[in-house]
Amino acid sequence: MTQVNWSRVAPLLQRLGSVIGLLLLFIVLSVMSPDFLTTGNLLSVLRQVSINALIAFGMTFVILAGGIDLSVGAILALTGAVTAGLMAAGHGMLLSMGAGLGLGLVLGMVNGALVSWGKVAPFIATLGTMTLLRGLTLVYTQGTPIPVTDTGFALLGGGYLAHLIPLPVVWMFVVFAVCGFLLRGTVFGRHVVAIGGNEEAARLSGVRLPPMKLAIYGLSGLLSAVAGVVLTSRLYSAQATAGAGYELDAIASVVLGGTSLAGGRGWLFGTLVGALLIGFLNNGLNLLGVSSFYQQVVKGIVILIAVLLDRRQ
Amino acid sequence: MAAPLIRMHDIHKAFGPVKVLEGVDFELLPGEVHALMGENGAGKSTLMKILTGIYAPDSGDIQVDGKAASIASPADAEKHGIAIIHQELNLIPSLSIADNLFLGREVHRFGLLDRKAMATRAKEWLARVGMEKLDPGTLVERLSVGRQQMVEIARALGQNARVLIMDEPTAALTESETATLFQLIRELRGQGTGIVYVSHRMEEIFALCDRISVLRDGQFVGTRDVPGLAFDEVVKMMVGRTLDARFPTRTPNIGSVRLKVEHVTGGMVKDVSFDLHAGEVLGVAGLLGAGRTELARLLFGLDKIDSGTVTLEGSVVTPTSPNEAIHAGFGFVTEDRKAQGLVLDLSLRENVSLPRVPARAGLVDRPAEKKQTRGLIDALKIRTRDMELDVRALSGGNQQKVVLAKWLALKPRVLILDEPTRGVDVGGKAEIYHIINQLAEQGVAILMISSELPEVLAMSDRILVMHEGRVTALLDAHGATQETVMTAATGGK
């Protein structure tokens, strides 16, 4: 039995495109910049990537189910502000964080309710909540940053594991493992993919769409709030404009990772690779002294090439 | 003998390691209706996709009008006068007939549409298909499926098609629409058009076609003249053996009343009452639009029941969602397996366990899932190399078996089948009939909606006939004939 099962190998090769891209980038940057392949630099990139990756993991579920969530950056900002605000008002760290995370979950579920019961297209529904939440964040913060003084809380984003690995990186891998299991090992994950593949068939098979969508968008909201808390902790302050444009980075990571925007096909590992690709690309261009104006141009081109390559399959 | 319009010789095509066509010949003469037959997965669609430029053959040559031709794109096919009328119609519902006829080749002056010229020419084109009474300004969504098909044919003819490929053209047509279509096909044949007719409906083919070519497992079996050809011989060519019987027999073992439907009204369904017994196959006959699928949707909680009661095993059930219906004990094999029955990008295993994933506390029990799938693959004789393959890769008959497997895994009390053998080849049909019989013998109560009268008559214990949302007859299948069913289905007494 040496026969190769092509029907299984071919999709794997297709998926591995993003991994190969990441490896190539790694090699090129290692050759071109002596500062790239250092523990300090790599860990610092990972720390930068972690915020985007946390959001992108939630986004993967939403996109796999055939939806989209534009409100993630806005949820990050509001939940970060609420967490910082509660602590500034003298509440404990755990209560403040719990409130922030709970708020993210509820806001995500509101998106889910709009999409399922309100029958609003996900793009429009989350565009609406994005704008709404950005406004609420400005109202809540009055446009001024809320400083964080709790040193324990500051460790969440600023601390290290074994004096080496930044804690946000640890959170990223923990959430990756949990979400990966959720997607592959649970009935919930199976139903997410089925809904994205054929919503009507899933419904006729008894999959209840409203609770599923509440859960899917709720997960995205919750992970955005996790990112919000970690970012607030790392920056020692919450800002109303935090997370601006993060929804696009998250979507780009998911798509770079090979998940179909049409839903029903994709994987979480790809999203991690996609997030790393974007992170290392930014870092490499910085190290090479490319102006930030050109960095955007390069990032756009990379995204387009990746999607075009995917289309050719 | 006239030179052939099309001659395909020694065509080979493989997708990866899977050989789909192995040395297929096909010839189409001007002024002939040529049936292309074969079981699902035999390679008919692939051959036609090569002829219309969607796929490139790996080897082999194609001649048009006796000259070697390269058909590398649908545009090339159009240039050669080859057009295909798809099973799923390719019209844009929200545009008018004229807009559709000229889509992509609008008559214009400096970019401004010349609506008048298009309307005039549209009239001429419609006249060619006997639809001159239609107003070209009518929106396509207002037309019946039969008329939409005529518009598609008109479009092909307007583009000077000399070769028309029709893929199951009568699948969604009423009897009178079918008759109109056949008349048109005969007229086109008289004008020298070559028509490739892809269908599973043997009666139609014998009534309409001049020659038959048969494919089996990607191989070319042969071409025969229809006059003098026996029905059984075609079946033998298709399946490589003679089928024991078209409809397997079953010893009825009918138990007590399992499902009681009383005065159910909702949507277009009006005051429907019937009993369904354990182990019984109750056929539901009627014309398109009689409300049969709508009745099934009401029972399965997809549409709202306005009044009336449904009693399952003594307790009243009013499912308001498929989820509730499934928990109550219903299963529903829908008529459109691709749109409603399957998630094409998921594996066979994942599709089969979709209604109820074997799991403990929300965690998928993969070994139990594999075991269950393996058991169903064996029980239903689903032909696949691997349960991890996407169901997209399976043939129509095997896909239909996967849909059945999905529900069998749940052990339903009442199984609703809506056109269970639509688009399934002869061999696959016999196997599905066998499965239906087995289920009935195990005591499942089966409601079988079907538009194929021989199937309803042979498979059912009793037949419920519907007309315009109402039950017009409840017949004992033994005494019933095609005539008595049709009389009730058309509203006669």
What are the SSEs and their pairings?
The complex is a heterodimer of chains A (313) and B (493).
Chain A: H1 6-15, H2 17-32, H3 39-64, H4 72-88, H5 93-116, H6 122-141, E1 146-147, H7 151-158, E2 160-161, E3 165-166, H8 167-185, H9 187-197, H10 199-204, H11 209-235, E4 237-238, H12 246-256, H13 268-287, H14 292-312
Chain B: E1 6-15, E2 18-28, E3 33-37, H1 44-51, E4 59-64, E5 67-69, H2 74-79, E6 82-85, H3 97-101, E7 108-109, E8 112-113, H4 115-128, H5 145-158, E9 163-167, H6 175-190, E10 194-198, H7 202-208, E11 211-216, E12 219-225, H8 231-239, E13 257-266, E14 269-277, E15 281-285, H9 292-299, E16 307-312, E17 315-316, H10 322-328, E18 330-333, H11 337-341, H12 348-352, E19 359-360, E20 363-364, H13 366-380, H14 396-408, E21 414-418, H15 426-441, E22 445-449, H16 453-459, E23 462-467, E24 470-476, H17 482-489
Parallel strand pairs in B: 3-10, 3-11, 6-9, 9-10, 15-22, 15-23, 18-21, 21-22
Antiparallel strand pairs in B: 1-2, 1-4, 4-5, 7-8, 11-12, 13-14, 13-16, 16-17, 19-20, 23-24
Helix pairs in contact in B: 4-5, 13-14
Biggest interface: A-B, 25 and 35 residues
Helical content band of chain B? 25-40%
CA-CA gap between termini of chain A: 28 Å
Strand content of chain A: under 5%
Q: Largest sheet of chain A at a glance?
A: 2 strands, antiparallel
The strand line-up of the biggest sheet of chain A is 1-4
What gap, in angstroms, lies between the N and C termini of chain B?
52 Å
Indicate the radius of gyration of chain A in whole angstroms.
Answer: 20 Å
Q: Approximately how much beta-strand content do the residues of chain B carry?
A: 25-35%
Biggest sheet of chain B, in brief?
A: 6 strands, mixed
